[in-house]
Amino acid sequence: MTPLTEQDIRAAFVNCTKGEAKRLTVPRDLADRPWDDLDYLGWRDPQAPDRAYLVTVLDGRPTALALRCPTPAVRQPRRNMCTMCLTAPAGGVSLMVARRAGKAGQQGNSVGTYLCSDLACSLYLRGKKDAGAGARMHESLTLEEKIQRTVTNLRGFITTVTE
Ligand SMILES: [Zn+2]
């Protein structure tokens, strides 16, 4: 994806207020992120571990989501799969919940999905980060096809938040 600045990112949030978008934590090392290898940039708030964020570029437009990660009461014994990149990383996946945009969100509607806990889907797909043994099923798809599928999944999730 194209590199984004802090300003781009703060302006891209679709499911929080302008005030929230102004205050939330954006990584300081944006210039050093491997943008060429990212389908989306995701991060957690170091001050608030139950908060995560992601930003991507859809149809040339930066689009960002604010997410909540409710702590699971019981740790799941079996490895779950990320709905975005279909990896079951050793680091685990987390339920991430997005408040829906607009009126639906004001009425308390939200949508959730399981994502790699470290939001590193793009790096797992490309083999730039080790997901652990058995984390990825064998598939005959090319990397390009897997990336395409991930982007489609991400787009679908964002659409359920914004529509
Ligand atoms: Zn993932």
Would you mind describing this structure in some detail?
With 163 residues, this protein is α+β, with helices and mostly antiparallel strands. Helices cover 26% and strands 23% of the residues. It is built from 5 helices and 5 strands. A 5-stranded antiparallel β-sheet has the order 1-2-3-4-5. The chain is globular and about 45 Å long. The two termini are 23 Å apart. The mean pLDDT is 94. Zinc ion (ZN) binds next to β5.
Ligands bound to this protein structure: zinc ion
**What's the count of strands?**
5
Reading the helices and strands in chain order gives HHEEEEHEHH
- Principal-axes geometry comes out as globular
What gap, in angstroms, lies between the N and C termini?
23 Å
Structural class: alpha+beta
Q: What percentage of amino acids are in beta strands?
A: 15-25%
Largest sheet: 5 strands, antiparallel
Q: Which runs of at least 5 residues are low in confidence (pLDDT < 50)?
A: none
Cross-sheet strand order for the largest sheet? 1-2-3-4-5
Amount of helix? 25-40%
Q: Overall mean pLDDT score?
A: 94
Radius of gyration equals 15 Å
